[in-house]
Structures are given as structure tokens and as C-alpha cells.
Design brief:
126 residues, Transcription Regulator spoIIAA, two-stranded parallel sheet, 5 helices, 8 strands, 28% strand
């Protein structure tokens, strides 16, 4: 059953069938402050449990290094079991690559261009 979305300034977050969905809003520019809001919403959405997470970066405009580092750190590790990132633009692909390759999240993370493939991977990764 799909949970009602939790809205932050930059994201819409909800649980559906044991998977957290995180849709970044159109032209969002994520800062550390935004990242902290998102993690608070992650905790609320899953009642603090660590769950697989699907993040849609396709509408993302930018993400600061401090936000990327925060998302890759222990705060996120406690509530994210695995993360599939869906990209759809050159900016989102670059940002996702920086997150995965430079920030090195502490949980399994993979980049996709197709949401169905991302969901299938998440289901097999946990």
C-alpha cells in the first residue's frame, strides 16, 4: 500500500511495498540543509527502519558536495539498505556519478536510466 508522500522543500518521499521512493522536485538545488530535511523525512517514512530506496534524480538541477557527502554518510546508512538512482538528464547523470564514485556511499548503490530495472535491482539487492 502506497503511503501518503512526505514533502520537503526539494523532495517528495513515500513508502510503497517496502521500498522508499524519493522524487526530487523539478530544478531542485540540494544543499546540506535540504539533505538533512530529506533524511528526517526518510526516518519518518520508514519509522527509522533501514529500507531499499529508489531516488529519481531526473529533475535535479544541482547538489552541493556537502549534501552528497551527507547522503553518503552514516546518517543515511542507518535508514538506507540499498539505493537505486534513476537518472534522465546529463546533470543528473553527472551528479549521480559524483555521488557513487567520489562520495562512496556506505550502502549498495547503483545508477539506472530505467525505473523498472532500478526497482528489480533493489528487490534483488536486499
Amino acid at each position: 500500500m502506497k503511503q501518503a508522500p512526505i514533502e520537503t522543500r526539494t523532495n517528495l518521499i513515500w513508502m510503497d511495498a517496502g521500498i522508499r521512493h524519493d522524487e526530487i522536485k523539478e530544478n531542485a538545488m540540494l544543499t546540506l540543509e535540504h539533505a538533512q530535511e530529506v533524511i528526517s523525512a526518510y526516518i519518518k517514512s520508514s519509522k527509522g527502519d533501514s529500507v531499499p530506496t529508489l531516488v529519481d534524480y531526473s529533475k535535479l538541477k544541482s547538489m552541493g558536495k556537502d549534501a552528497r557527502e551527507f547522503f553518503a554518510g552514516r546518517q543515511c546508512q542507518g535508514v538506507v539498505k540499498a539505493m537505486a538512482i534513476v537518472v534522465g538528464s546529463p546533470v543528473s547523470e553527472i551528479t549521480a556519478s559524483l555521488f557513487v564514485n567520489l562520495s562512496k556511499p556506505k550502502f549498495p548503490t547503483k545508477i539506472f536510466t530505467n525505473e523498472d530495472e532500478a526497482l528489480a535491482w533493489l528487490k534483488s539487492a536486499v
